[in-house]
Structure formats: structure tokens, C-alpha cells
Amino acid sequence: MAFFTHQVRRAFSSSAVRNVVIKHVTIIGGGQMGAGIAQVAASTGHTVTLVDTSDDILKKSIKGIEGSLKRVAKKKFADKPEAAEEFVLKVLQNVSTSTDDASAVQGTDLLLEAIVENLKVKRDLFGRLDKLAPKHTIFASNTSSLSISDIASSTTRLDRFGGVHFFNPVPMMKLVEVIKTSTTSQETFDSLLNFSKVLGKTPVSCKDTPGFIVNRLLVPYSMEAIRLHERGHGSKEDIDIAMKLGAGYPMGPFELGDYVGLDTIKFIMDGWHAIEPDNPLFAPSELLNKLVAEGKFGKKTGEGFYKYK
Ligand SMILES: NC(=O)c1ccc[n+]([C@@H]2O[C@H](COP(=O)([O-])OP(=O)(O)OC[C@H]3O[C@@H](n4cnc5c(N)ncnc54)[C@H](O)[C@@H]3O)[C@@H](O)[C@H]2O)c1
């Protein structure tokens, strides 16, 4: 499939490439997150190349982006259907697709990875593309639970590597966690913060620690809710009602777990438990392990803590 190369726009200092102004973004992984990020980046005037492993997947990604854009346009241009149509077309024109990541990284300012949550696969991808991407290109991962430093060390551009963690669904969720490792340069970090702001998001600065801010608080909270239930302190329904009405949360912890995916929660917990086996916040749950072993991952499989039709 076609991809575009674009003029690189950079600000130079006397000695090194600094403060890359991100205009062209290459997103690797056109799943839930990658497609969402592509939509938002294209809507805010960036040119985007979306990369995945097959044309069929990419077709689905573009269809999803189009459907989401139409919903946005319907609200934005309520009484002007022509303007709405024009908006959707204009944004879609900013997105091209490719199954050839080696070509897609040419001339890009930012390489943003949103592929499967597996350290080896991410390291292999970045290590390979490091040799092919232009020198100024910033590399960033959207990982939820892996260490950015562990991913970045597969490359030689440790100063131009950071984390940009979006939330699902990307077009709706305002937050972006921008992660600075001990080797990320201030210029790279500032470019990523600025990029997040240009996307219309609110960035927060995070250190490269497990779960950054949101998941570091949210995942142990979800696990403690499950353990509370396992100890017989409350039904799932009562715990969900309690947190919604008592703490003002939009979803209870069991509803949220089913929405996020119980396999994802287990994957994150297992990873952290392996790093800190004595931390009681990261202790495994029998109930969660059982549900995942039975393939009950939540909404996406039709059953998790609750059943879905
Ligand atoms: N789903 C969430 O709520 C969420 C939130 C924040 C961050 N994340 C992180 O974002 C990343 C992606 O998550 P997702 O939910 O979008 O996953 P997903 O399964 O929906 O999408 C992943 C996509 O990557 C593609 N892919 C896999 N390996 C590839 C490769 N080598 N080259 C190109 N494409 C490849 C797959 O075909 C798939 O389309 C993960 O690291 C995850 O931890 C997820």
C-alpha cells in the first residue's frame, strides 16, 4: 500500500538536532490504540502512516477511524452535513497505510509503537527500525505495563526514546502520560509533551516506573476489589455500587475489569509480581486466574465477572 514521505521540519541547534516539531507520525500497530492515535493525530493536522501486518487489518483500522470520525463530525457540524462530510474526507486524506515498516519510517518525525504487549516483540521491532529511521526521528512506545528503558535499550537512540501512553478510547480520553527515562533528553521529552498538547490532550510527566501513574494506582485497586470479594467481604454487585455511589467513580472495579479485559489485568499483575514478588499489592488472585484460564476475559469474550449478550 502507498505511503507518503514528508519534508522533515526540524529546529536545529548549533551542534545537534533539538526540539523536533512533530508533523509526520508513523504508527506501528493499527489495533484499538494505534487506530485511535492515528485518528487524533490526523484530525489535528499531522500526516500519519499507519502500519500493520496485513492489508485486511489496515482496512478494518481505516473503517473504524472513518466510523469514529463520522460520529465526531455529526456532533461538530450538527446542521451542516456537507461540512461534516468534508471534515471526514480531509482527515482521512492525512492517513496512509503500509505493511512495510522499513519504508514507512523514512522521513518520519515520530515513530509511535502500539503493537502487542510483549517485550521481545517490541524490542525486535525497535532494534530493526533504529537502523533504518532517520537520525532525528523520535521513537516512542504506548506500552501500558512494560519498562520504556527495557524497550529503548534495543536501540542506539536512547536520548530520542520516550513513552507516550494514551488511554482507551483515544479520541475521548484527554490524558496522555509522557514518560521520561533516565536517558531521554529534555528536548525529546519537550517534543513529546508538545505533541500531546497539539493533539488536544492533557499530558502529565511520568517516571519510567511500573504502570506510570494511572495503572500503578488503578490495577492494584482492581486487584484489591477482587480480593475483597474473594474474602467474602462483599458481592461484586455491592462493591461496584459502593464505589460508584460512595466514591463517585463512573464504573465499579468489576465493571471496569470487564471493560479493560481480565487477561490484560492478569498480564500486568503477573509481570509486576515477577519483578516484586513480596509486594502484597501485586499478589495474584485465584478468582482472576480461574476466569482467565476459562477464557472469560470480560466484555470482549461475552463473559468476565459479568455476562454480556
Ligand atoms: N487497549 C488498551 O486499553 C490500551 C491502553 C493503553 C495502552 N495500550 C497498549 O497499546 C498497545 C496496543 O494495544 P491495543 O489494545 O491497541 O492492541 P490490539 O491488539 O488492538 O492491536 C495491536 C495491533 O498491532 C499489530 N501488530 C502486532 N505486531 C505487529 C508488528 N510487528 N508490526 C505491525 N503491527 C503489529 C496487530 O496486528 C494489531 O492490529 C499495547 O502495548 C498495550 O499495552 C493499550
What does this structure look like?
The chain is an alpha/beta fold and 309 residues long. It folds into two domains: 2-207, Rossmann fold; 216-301, Orthogonal Bundle (N-(1-d-carboxylethyl)-l-norvaline Dehydrogenase, domain 2). It has helices at residues 32-43, 55-76, 81-93, 101-104, 119-130, 148-152, 186-198, 214-230, 236-247, 253-260, 262-275, 286-293; strands at 11-12, 17-18, 24-28, 47-51, 95-98, 110-113, 138-141, 161-165, 175-180, 202-207. The structure holds nicotinamide-adenine-dinucleotide. Nicotinamide-adenine-dinucleotide binds next to helix 1.
Helix/strand-derived class? alpha/beta
The hetero compounds bound to this protein are: nicotinamide-adenine-dinucleotide
Strand order of the largest sheet: 5-4-3-6-7-8-9-10
Separation of the first and last Cα atoms:
37 Å
Major sheet: 8 strands, mixed
- Mean pLDDT comes to 93
Shape: globular
Fraction of residues in β-strands: 5-15%
Unreliable residue stretches: 1-17
Task: Describe the SSE topology.
Layout: E1 11-12, E2 17-18, E3 24-28, H1 32-43, E4 47-51, H2 55-76, H3 81-93, E5 95-98, H4 101-104, E6 110-113, H5 119-130, E7 138-141, H6 148-152, E8 161-165, E9 175-180, H7 186-198, E10 202-207, H8 214-230, H9 236-247, H10 253-260, H11 262-275, H12 286-293
Parallel strand pairs: 3-4, 3-6, 4-5, 6-7, 7-8, 9-10
Antiparallel strand pairs: 1-2, 8-9
